[in-house]
Amino acid sequence: MASTGNRMTGGMGGAETASRPGNVGSAPGQAHGGSTQGEGGVMNVVKDKAREAASDASDLVGQVKDSVSHFASDVADRAGDAWDSTRSSVQSAASSVAECTENCWNDVNAFLRRYPVASALVAFGAGFLVAEAMSVRSDRHDWSNNWRPALSTRRTPSASGVY
Predict the structure, then answer these.
(1) CA–CA gap between residue 35 and residue 41 (Å, rounded)
(2) Tell me: the pLDDT tens digits for 4-42?
(3) What are phi and psi of 114, to 5 degrees?
């Protein structure tokens, strides 16, 4: 019974210890004088702990991967919703502008049909004002460049100071 307790705790001695390589000379029930079994037990414990740590790390990596995947999916869903909302808003604005433009065009056509002579006079007056504005602008441009006298006609004083 003493050997059963030793096997469970990774201790030395017992039938299991005698049958392992490197334990020559050990007999059941005798303590081994060398350190091979103690080191082997510690190595097994260290290996088990390393396996557990690797398994825990693998589980943690899996959880992080799932969390990142869920986050990315959530962001993609929100981006899709934002895109749909923006698209519907732009379509609504475009249809509103088109409707307003159509209404304005119909109102202008109705005014021109109702008052054709007045409309023609207004168009003539607007054209005249635009032509005058362009004409004054071009005259102003010519005047600003020609107001200085040419260098050859400029009078300079003579040596006596008389022009």
Answers:
(1) 10
(2) 444 444 444 444 444 455 454 444 444 444 445 567 788
(3) -75, -40
Give the residue, 55 or 34, on which the prediction is more confident: 55
User: Tokens 């490197």 label which residue?
Assistant: 22
Q: SS3 string of 44-104?
A: HHHHHHHHHHHHHHHHHHHHHHHHHHHHHHHHHHHHHHHHHHHHHHHHHHHHHHHHHHHHH
Q: What residue has token string 């433009």?
A: 101
> Rounded distance, CA 39 to CA 45, Å?
10
CB-based contact 32:17 (threshold 8 Å): yes
Q: Is the full-model pTM beyond 0.70?
A: no
